[in-house]
Design a protein that fits this description.
This protein has 273 residues and is an alpha+beta fold. 26% of the residues lie in helices and 29% in strands. Strands 1, 2, 3, 5, 6, 7, 8, 11 and 12 form a 9-stranded mixed beta sheet that branches. The protein has a 5-stranded mixed beta sheet with strand order 4-14-13-9-10, with no helix packed on it. Strand 13 and strand 14 form a beta hairpin. It is globular, with a radius of gyration of 18 Å.
Length: 273
Amino acid sequence: MLTASELQEIALQIRAAQLEVRQIEPFTSHIPGFDLPSAYAVAQLIHHVRVSEGAVPVGRKIGFTNADMWPIYGVREPIWAYVYDQTVTGLAMTDGTCSLGQFAEPMIEPEIVFHFRSAPPVGADLPSLLASIDWVAHAFEIVQSHYPGWKFQPADTVADCSLHGTLLLGEPVPVDQLASDPVAALESFSMALSRNGEVLEVGRGANVLGNPLIALAHLISVLSKQSECLPLQANEIVTTGSITLAQAVRPGESWQTRLQGIALPELTVEFVP
């Protein structure tokens, strides 16, 4: 673990890059010993700064739950970060558009989001975990990299708020309306991701650590070992990671999803400068 002053300096550099929408050299390339514990300590410092600036945490994001992305980005396990009232928006509230000017090298990830009626238990099986959830939504997460070319080590991504840009939420659906067997449906459903009407990839719920609920259980376990972080609470949301590979997005493009095997509505977003 780096010293407190070193961690603070890294946090200041990351926050400046975020606010100025510019890219910087990965810290792992020039700071020996910058590892995942150091990165989570930096992320916690940035979290406190954002809260002091008026942001309200409303949940968490899990990143890199799709193992197909691990060899591309050199990661070996999921990561997590907070999401805020300022970074989570219902798609209906944006008229289906999203401005990309606020993000560095943005990409799109179609995801499954859970909302908790009660604090989820540590070590619960999937049906018990589902019992703590009141609604599920399909969403687009716009991720970004403040490191040029998406070249980094895992610690760099954690320090950069796990690459979170914004979460564009679709319509929430009560758990009991998802399918006759929601746990099985969350694993087996398919989703086609299209750009300007052309299907780029068809993903399945199983791409997310085997089931988005398994990704959720992983986060709960990780948080139980990070004493400086609060466990998940009632009324929080968690977005569980990309069902497909992340795809670069540009102004003027229209992106759509079509789902089968689960009662979640498709999404469309138009990107503007």
